[in-house]
What does this fold into?
Amino acid sequence: MDVKVVNSTPLHSTSVDLYKMALPTVQKFESEEQVAVALAIYIFHLSAKYIAANGSFSVVLSGGSLIDTLRKLTEPPYANSIDWSKWLIFFLDERVVPLDHPDSNYKLAYDGFLSKVPIPASNIFPIKEKLSPEEAADEYEQRLKHLVANNTLKTSPTTGFAKFDLMLVGIGPEGHVASLFCWHFERFEKKKWVTFIKDSPKPPSNRITFTFPLINSASEIAMVVTGEDVADAVKVALGKHASYGYPLPVQKVSPEENLTWFLDKEATSEL
It folds into this structure.
């Protein structure tokens, strides 16, 4: 399948129909700073589009360096022109720790982004504290289903899962997304919306995570990938041999509408 490249040096076309990948748009930039600028523009327009169409904008955040790359949204002109009251914030995966713990993705997002924009607290959906990984995953899934039932979230007519407007996704050096790792069976989950793991290779070991059926029910997914440490995974996902061998988790990302990669020069250094 071809890759559409925007504002960048063309990358290799790939043929990954075996994995039912969405046709991606790949945007390659010279620096992480340029990625941050482009990402803000992209999110600004999507926010306006979905709020005009549906009265809300549902956004799923991941952890890691992504939160810092959202920094331009907290500055003019975006900070004062986005209708933050209509945003709904969810978490792609989360460490099963207190929300004020240094390892919490919620804390990372709050400190770096959410505390700097006026999204109502009632529109932010962190995990419940003081639950086991199994309980936390089940509680979050049930909360999502309740939000679908009361029409706060849309439903995918294709899968029946919740349909988020935008998921902002990063990848790990070995190609994992969310907390779906190469060697974990959770990456093959088909029925659950949210699952859990107790043996993450990177501490803390207990986590909950969206499953691929839920991830891929999204309208838009932005793969925000910067830094040299992920260059090998980017090469496997987007290089000329992307259809060879067994797919990395990142190669299973395929939203119902649009998949857009935001890459800096370091992340594409192996292409």
Remarks:
- The helical segments are 32-54, 66-69, 78-81, 105-112, 133-149, 212-215, 231-238.
- Residues 8-21 have pLDDT under 50 and may be disordered.
- Residues 32-54 form the longest helix (23 residues).
- DSSP finds seven helices and twelve strands in the chain.
